[in-house]
Structure formats: C-alpha cells, structure tokens
Specification:
Helix 9 crosses helix 10, helix 9 crosses helix 11 and helix 12 packs parallel to helix 16. By secondary structure, this protein is α+β, with helices and mostly antiparallel strands. The protein starts with 13 loop residues before the first helix and ends with a strand. 47% of the residues lie in helices and 8% in strands. It has a 5-stranded mixed sheet with strand order 1-2-8-5-3. Strands 4-10-9 form a 3-stranded antiparallel sheet. A two-stranded antiparallel ribbon has the order 6-7. The chain has one domain: Cytochrome P450 (Cytochrome p450, Orthogonal Bundle), CATH 1.10.630. Bound molecules: protoporphyrin IX containing FE (HEM).
C-alpha cells in the first residue's frame, strides 16, 4: 500500500480520500514516507473523539524522539509548551494561559477585532477583485495575536513570515531557521516585557515565571505557540467558510439577511471544511485497542478532524452544508485536554470578518472557477493559497 495522504488529489479533494479510508476502517495502519515507517490514521468520528481523550496517546514529542539521531536543529524553546506535553506539565503550562483566552477576555477584544477588520476592508469597492486570503484572512489573526502579545506593528510582517515558514512542508532547513528566528525574537520580547509592567499577555507570563510557575524557555515557547497555533488555522477557517458560503448561495443569502445567525453557523462551517485536516503528532505509550484495531506501543497515531467531521455515522449527509444542523460535536478544535485554547478567539474573529463581508458585499462571488482554486500543499492544514473574489 502507498501512503494515501500522498495521493496527488489529496490537496484539492481530501474528502473523497478520507471517505475511502474511513469506509475501509475508521482506524488503520498507513505507510508514512518511503523508509518503511508507518502510522495509524484515525478517520472515524467516534474513534477520533476517543483517541483525543486517551491518555495512552502521548503528546510528549521530546520523549518519543529521545535517543533517535536527528539532524534537525530546532530552537530549544519552541516545543516546551502545552501542545508538546502530557500531564502534569501540560496542566501547569496550560493553566497559566487558560483564563486569558476564555469568552470574557475575548469579548473585550471584539472592538479591536472589528477595528482591524474595518481597517483591512477600508477602500474596498463593490465590483472589484481582491484576494481574500491575502487581504483579510491572513492579516487578521496575526494582527490580533500580535496586539495581545505586544509585538510592535513594525515587526508583524516579519514575525508572520517566520510563523508561516514553520510549516514549510519538506523544507527542514527553512523550518529550523525560522524556529531560531522566532525563538530569538520572542526571547528578547519577553525580556523587554519583564522591565515593562502594565498589562499584555507577555507581562502576565513573565509574572508567572517569576512566581516559579513557568521557566524562561516555557514563557518563550508559550508565546511562540500562541502566535503560531492561531495563525494559519484561523486564516483557513475564514477563507474556507467564505468559500463554502459562496458555493452555497441560499446559505450566504440567509446570513446576509440576518447576520445574527452567523455566530450559530460557525460550528457547521468548521465541520464542513475543517481548517485542521490532521491534528498534531501523538504516539502510543503502550499497546491499545481503537475501533477494533490493535495499535502497538511506540507508534505515531494521526487523528484527522477533517475526516471525522465528515463521518456519516455522526453527521447525516455530511457532504452537505446545512446551517440548521447541530454540528457542535465536530472535532475541528480537537477534544480532551488539548482542545484548542484559542477557540473563542478564532470564533470571534471569524464571526466579525464574515459579518463585515456579507453585509458590505452582498454580491460577492468567485473570480475564478472553483476547479482553479489552489490549495496549500500541507497535510495537516486545509487551506487555500488564495481566494480571489469579485466583491
Ligand atoms: C479556527 C481556528 C483554529 C483551529 C481550527 C484550531 C485547531 C486546534 C486543534 C485541532 C487543536 C488540538 C491539537 C491536537 O490535539 O493535536 C488546537 C490546540 C491549540 N490551539 Fe487552536 N485552533 C484555532 C485557533 C487558535 C487560536 C486563535 C489560538 C490562540 C491564539 C489557538 C491556540 C491553541 C493552543 C494553545 C492549543 C494547544 C492546547 C493544548 O495543547 O492544551 N488556536 N487548536
């Protein structure tokens, strides 16, 4: 068997491949790479939910790779964070940031998000063509998280480029270099925050480190994680949602006529074309059974929210966008202890961006045929390179 995720069709139409795999078995062994390595891929919804919550599937990547000779040269601080740890470290690392990303603090960010969206849409004229990825979906999340972290405006383009480069599939040197650039940059920003009392996420994290809750590398790593985790994901969310709505005109019309329905539609939009196709790396610390399949100890396990969210056993007619559906059990934000910390922020950004677009540009349509849209060549993310629309 060849690696099904290396099928050339995967980027433009992952769903037919996910469907084929899930019908064969919701959990299965797949070859990864060319050197005889393999992983277990989870494509069923019930099985993915179970896997996300299983403590025998570890996120402590440092432990998995310990002892393996690696030619990689990542910045030492970039992976000392909650997304690469298990309890009790995970509980401690997540605990210091969790309260800052709940609905309350995010509600306080809404006026700023609206101001950024207004600024980005400034001067757009109905009837003209814009690339919604470049002009809205990409700059919005990075501007918002940089503001929260206190990254100066002049540095944001550079920081955003490093963050994107961390996902440069097949380019390990570029990934290593950007990890050093972003790690060094954040280290100096954290040091500046140390001497500057008075608000900002970084200052709060520095206080936690002074109280002994986080070490210095963990503060830097947390800042890098927040920057990176909410960046491309939210870009994909906004662009995939706009595309889905343009391709389903009655749904677009409903939201335009009643923008109050947007917040309640976000779950279905996340389910329908999930921004994260395959969640981050896990491995089995002991042998376990999942979906009737025996997974041995010490192997990588890939959980695919993109596949789980189209599982007909959990969502009737999953290939249909149905804004009336209760889609709240989708796994686009993961599940269990690593469930997305930034979900309320991502929702607020998408709700405000979609609201502005559908009300200001009611006639918005694609500028190219759907088949000509180009998707990013990454297996983890599901996102467009560009979304050209006529406003
Ligand atoms: C629509 C946009 C987003 C999507 C689809 C998304 C998706 C996810 C998923 C699937 C996970 C779990 C990964 C796993 O278990 O392997 C996750 C974790 C995480 N996300 Fe998001 N994310 C989004 C936006 C954000 C934003 C805006 C932030 C913060 C600014 C953020 C911060 C995080 C963090 C810190 C974690 C790690 C949580 C932990 O390990 O305990 N995400 N996200």
């Amino acid at each position: 068997m060849t690696d099904p995720l290396h099928d050339p069709l995967f980027f433009s139409d992952p769903y037919s491949i996910y469907d084929r795999l899930r019908s064969a078995s919701p959990v299965q062994k797949i070859p990864t790479g060319s050197k005889g390595h393999y992983s277990y891929l989870v494509t069923g919804h019930a099985e993915a939910r179970q896997a996300f919550a299983d403590p025998r599937l570890s996120k402590d990547t440092a432990r998995f790779f310990a002892g393996q000779r690696s030619r990689r040269n990542l910045h030492p601080a970039v992976s000392k964070n909650m997304l690469a740890s298990d309890p009790p470290q995970h509980t401690r690392q997540r605990g210091v940031a969790a309260k800052l990303f709940t609905t309350g603090p995010v509600a306080e960010m809404r006026p700023y998000i609206a101001q950024v969206v207004d600024g980005l849409l400034d001067g757009w004229k109905p009837g003209t063509q814009v690339d919604l990825v470049e002009r809205l979906a990409a700059p919005l999340p990075v501007t918002v998280i940089c503001q929260m972290l206190g990254v100066p405006e002049a540095d944001r383009v550079m920081v955003s480029r490093w963050s994107n480069d961390l996902f440069a599939a097949g380019e390990p040197d570029r990934i290593d270099a950007s990890s050093h650039a972003i790690g060094d940059y954040m280290t100096s920003l954290v040091e500046t925050a140390r001497g500057k009392p008075g608000g900002g996420l970084l200052h709060t994290f520095v206080q936690h480190s002074d109280e002994g809750l986080l070490d210095r590398d963990e503060v830097v790593s947390l800042a890098v994680l927040l920057l990176v985790a909410g960046h491309e994901t939210t870009t994909n969310f906004i662009a995939n949602a706009v595309l889905a709505l343009i391709q389903h005109p009655p749904s677009l019309t409903r939201l335009r006529q009643d923008p109050g329905l947007i917040a309640g539609s976000l779950d279905e939009l996340l389910r329908f074309d999930s921004p994260v196709g395959i969640a981050t790396f896990r491995y089995s610390t002991e042998a376990l059974q999942l979906g009737g399949i025996e997974i041995p100890a010490g192997v990588p396990v890939l959980i695919a929210p993109g596949a789980a969210n189209r599982d007909p056993a959990s969502f009737a007619e999953p290939q249909q966008l149905d804004l009336d559906r209760n889609a709240s059990s989708h796994l686009a934000f993961g599940h269990g202890i690593h469930r997305c910390l930034g979900a309320p922020l991502a929702r607020a950004e998408a709700e405000i961006a979609l609201g502005a677009l559908v009300t200001r540009f009611p006639g918005m349509r694609l500028a190219v045929p759907s088949e000509d849209l180009e998707w990013r060549q990454t297996r983890l993310m599901r996102g467009l390179k560009a979304l050209p629309v006529i406003l």
